[in-house]
Write a structure and sequence with these properties.
The protein is mostly helical. It contains 8 helices and no strands. The chain has helices at residues 2-19, 37-41, 45-54, 56-59, 74-88, 99-114, 121-124, 134-157. The longest helix is centred in the last third of the chain and has 24 residues, at 134-157.
Length: 158
């Protein structure tokens, strides 16, 4: 029995070692900086700080990969979250969004921040600076709301 357990453990270690050679592609596409959310919307400094610490890693091409992103299979799970985040709302492509789509993305962002679904709890476990206080959540959602009003006013003018 002990021999079988040793073989199973050795096999699992071997699989783990082999997995280290097969990580996901973590390169970011080349992005035009002129399309960036912060550049185009000019948020107040405090909102900019919140966006960079709590949103940009998963919702832009400006991802800062932590050390553990080099460990398989964690990197696959992490990359899946990042790709899903970029698909849902990519702040690096903000100016490509139509007024209606931008408004919808902001509406969703408000809802997810208010309901404490964003940033993801699994992200904030290891990124303490991304944990939002109630005041930061209010600030962010109020600013998103004001941006929605601005977009609505601009689309009515056109």
């Amino acid at each position: 029995m002990e021999s079988l357990t040793s073989k199973i453990i050795a096999g699992l270690i071997l699989v783990f070692i082999i997995l280290q050679f097969f990580g996901p592609d973590t390169s970011s596409p080349a992005a035009d900086p002129s399309k960036d959310f912060i550049l185009n919307t000019q948020p107040p400094e405090q909102v900019t700080s919140i966006l960079k610490s709590a949103c940009y890693d998963c919702h832009s091409y400006q991802t800062n990969y932590p050390w553990y992103s080099n460990i398989e299979p964690v990197s696959w799970w992490l990359q899946d979250h990042i790709e899903h985040g970029r698909d849902e709302f990519n702040m690096s492509l903000w100016s490509d969004y139509s007024s209606n789509r931008a408004d919808h993305k902001l509406e969703e962002a408000i809802e997810l921040v208010e309901e404490e679904e964003m940033p993801l709890p699994s992200y904030t476990w290891v990124h303490g600076d991304a944990r939002l206080t109630p005041e930061q959540r209010d600030l962010l959602t109020e600013w998103f709301s004001s941006l929605r009003t601005k977009i609505s006013d601009n689309s009515e003018e056109n």
